[in-house]
């Protein structure tokens, strides 16, 4: 009888688990990160930085790559710059394959769909439509100055003492994204009423980065059983519908502009793209253009609130400029060397996109001529570890030291380009698929610092302990003595 129960119940289950969790035999011989590591967030208070430090740093620095369980499969995570450069350069061999390919049934795939960031096949089509709206030669700083002043007003209105900034930073980031890319005024910052499209973002982040579903997206298939997954799909659909409706109303009311939303709507209405492609690209613009800025600004508040010498040195530079240019243009703000070095160093020490595994080998390949990659294997990168590797960035790699970038803006820009091409500085990725919003993101942070530092000083609350979230954002408390 016992044998029968074992044979009918346990044996199939055991065989299933062996099949599901086995590492393909064709994988190269590399260190393996234990499968429980991505789940640590469930029972420990460890931040992502501590997890990287404890489990990833030593094997990655010694071998240049590791085998890791990610989003329901074993994948290869790379940190050796020459291998990364090979991966980024050969985008037709290591092709982009986001969750819409990896786990098309999942909650995250419902959210992002097929879009300009994760698509291989349709990338050229999407880029031809959206690029002019994402990469303007010169961005007008008027709206950035106004939004940054508004964030400052809201923070100051909270009074002196300990305050938490993350919620207001998210609202600011959503409003800035809306105004500069979608021609939508969300006006969530300082609004006593809830702006649903903004407030949904916190729910979306919590739903997506739940360690158990992030690690095992196959569980999303059981939404009929798991109410949190049912809720997840509902939230993603609500976001999709609200953004679509709001954008279409705006498009009907206004004439064409150089905004991404107008360009996408035009392509949709003239049938160059489908309604789904329109919706997916609207959503990714909304997400990527606010989320990364939000994380970077959180890191900035923390870092400059602990390195007060850096805070006052940038302030001196900014105050001097503001006497001549109280509302600087992009060209003027870009002339400040210390500000430039602070922004580049923030992106090095706190890359908002700290890790991504979203490429798949189309053929059997040999990465950098050294590492065999079987066909169909997912490969990715970890910017946090590349940027903090002492063999790459020197003995002080883990310190925040803006001076390392040089003393003139030209010198800094040259180093920025050089390190990006070499695969040693990848906050925006590199080569053909590098970030199209990079220019705007740098400007956005510079203008925010220009406004903030001219009006407030802050220190990090001594009670606060820095912890990077799964997507790399420190959330914290600080005090703002005006
Ligand atoms: C601090 C802010 C930002 C950071 C750190 C950042 C980072 C990145 C990274 C790492 C990638 C490559 C993703 C991958 O390999 O799959 C990327 C791609 C992209 N980013 Fe950003 N991003 C930022 C802001 C923005 C903004 C403001 C926009 C404007 C909408 C934007 C639009 C894009 C687009 C369209 C791509 C896809 C490029 C392509 O594949 O051709 N990003 N970004």
Spatial order of strands in the largest sheet = 1-2-8-5-3
Mean pLDDT: 93
- Listing every helix as H and every strand as E from the N terminus to the C terminus, the arrangement reads HHEEHEHHHHEHHHHHHHHHEEEEHHHHEE
Q: What is the H level of CATH, i.e. the homologous superfamily?
A: Cytochrome P450
* Total count of domains: 1
- Count of DSSP H/I helices: 20
Tell me the helix content. Answer: 40-55%
Uncertain regions: pLDDT < 50 for 5+ in a row?
Answer: 470-482
Number of strands: 10
**Ligands bound to this protein structure:** protoporphyrin IX containing FE
Sheet with the most strands, sense and barrel status:
5 strands, mixed
- Intertermini distance: 77 Å
The CATH class is identified as: Mainly Alpha
CATH architecture: Orthogonal Bundle
Judged by helices, strands and strand pairing, the structural class is alpha+beta
Anisotropy-based shape: globular
Cofactor: heme
GO molecular function: heme binding; iron ion binding; monooxygenase activity; oxidoreductase activity, acting on paired donors, with incorporation or reduction of molecular oxygen
Pfam families: p450 (PF00067)
Binding site for heme: 435
Describe the structure.
The chain is an alpha+beta fold and 482 residues long. It has a single domain, classed as Orthogonal Bundle (Cytochrome p450), CATH 1.10.630.10. Strands 1-2-8-5-3 form a 5-stranded mixed beta sheet. A hairpin with a 3-residue loop joins strand 6 and strand 7. Helix 6 runs antiparallel to helix 12 and helix 12 runs antiparallel to helix 13. The C terminus is likely disordered. The structure holds protoporphyrin IX containing FE. It holds the Pfam family p450. Keywords: Heme, Iron, Metal-binding, Oxidoreductase.
